[in-house]
Amino acid sequence: MSIDPKAYWQEEHLEKEYERIFSRSIYVGTSASLRADGDYVSYRVCGRPYVTRNIAGAVGTFDNICLHRANLIDPLGHGNRPFRCGYHGWQYGAGGTLMRSPLASDKCITRKQLQSYATVENRGLVFASLDNDFGGAAPGEAALEAIGFQMGETFHSETLEHEANWKLLVENVLESYHLSFVHGDSFVPTGITSTSQFADQYHGNDSCFTIASKAGASGKEKVIPGASSDYVHAFVFPNLFISITGGLVGFVSHFKPEAPGRTLLEWQLFETPLLQSQKAVVRSYIKKNAVEFTRKVLGEDLVVLNNSQIGTRYARGSHQIQEIEGRIAQFHQLYMKMVS
Predict the structure, then answer these.
(1) Rg from Cα positions in the chain
(2) Which of 45, 78, 258, 276 is the most exposed place for a label (fewest CB within 10 A)?
(3) pLDDT tens per residue, range 186-218
């Protein structure tokens, strides 16, 4: 069984996905990006505006909608500013409480509290639950432990908009089948191809895998003891991807669905402890190559994902998932169970 093609382009399916998937738990950003008082990340989930903020040292998530006349309080994106609406100056404090409303009359104000949501930090990553229930364990813990994830210092970040449904992005990163056909100029020269040996692991809603390079020992392995040519990847349901290349460079990316056929992907690269321990010239060289490599890979994926959105809109049947795509099959089963 596979997901109904209509779920990739019809608005009604996105509404159901919000209610049954994205409201439960969603990755919003790194702890480092919310370290200082006034730091914020403002975003939309299936159209709905939210903001996760550091207010006096406490990180929380709120409706990003002013109680006055519903203007967005924080502009979409990342930054540092007072929690203040730019329309009429209404300002909010700890817990989302209205603290200041210039020229307003108290008798005309009946609501002074923004809706707030459960927010947790785990391994330098911040998650929000829009229905205020994480259900126990920290999000993604088992999968993150399995790949040895430890958040390091970010050295580059970008955003990339896809004219594709969010599920196509998930499916793409869950399989290595496409590597030889899409990434002939990026992954293939490193020895990672469609026929590379791989091992999948499943941890509840999450999954991870390791791909072994066919290239054998690379130059960086000879220069940096402890480095490798392997690639490890984790998917923390529903919107977080993490990978580590050669034990040196970490990649954290996440998406937020904006519309059935539009998905914004944010990505960043970070140094692992192994890379941070190297000489400055080595670190600089590896980081420069990592940025170029990542841009190339994501650009190659963007083309096929946007094309797949067009094809899926007019498909005469569901996907035909292959045995090599076991993680996609698990994702489809989970999805259908949650939305049915």
Answers:
(1) 21
(2) 276
(3) 999 999 999 999 999 999 999 999 999 877 655
